[in-house]
Amino acid sequence: MIRVLIADDHAIVRRGIRDIIEDEPDITVVAEAADGQETLAQAQSCDWDVLLLDLAMPGMHGSDVLARLRRQCPDKAVLIVTMHPEEEYGLRLMRAGAAGYLTKESAPDLLVSAIRQVMAGEQYLSPRLRTLLAREKSGADKRPPHAVLSERETQVLRHIASGRTLSDISALMALSPKTVSTYRYRLLVKMRMKSNAELTRYAVENKLL
Asked: Which domains, and CATH codes, for the chain?
């Protein structure tokens, strides 16, 4: 039996996913979470095999949840299920350790197939994500400036753009203020920017929040 944990801030979405999953004889939902912190708590307190993780949740972005879970339970499969198209987060989150990336526009049977696939230790790649990966490998893809950032740097960028202070970011990411400051410096250098205001404007314009 594949044990699934659902993390999404919309109750109606969680219910819809549960209804799809529980029609399958070999898949069961063991817990649900409505925000990032609750997801981490449920991940520690219950036995699960596959996490279906939304990205835009209150308190903690899904990418931050993914980063923590990769450290805490690297053997577990995290399948991103989001409204954001593959171009926005797909490549970066796959590099960060996600087992698969699925948009909420996908057909229900694709969700079921993806769950079984990542449970088997494979990656789930949509046709669009396969195309993006192929372009990246061939060098044909003209990547935006933020594509050169590491996952940690991207997380710091998102927190800065959300108006959080260095001390807030330090607490959220479990890093020292000095380390967060170093990440901010790297951001400014790599992005060729001079202030938090420029970083914030870029993040908003490129839908990184």
From this structure: 2-138 (3.40.50.2300), 145-205 (1.10.10.10)
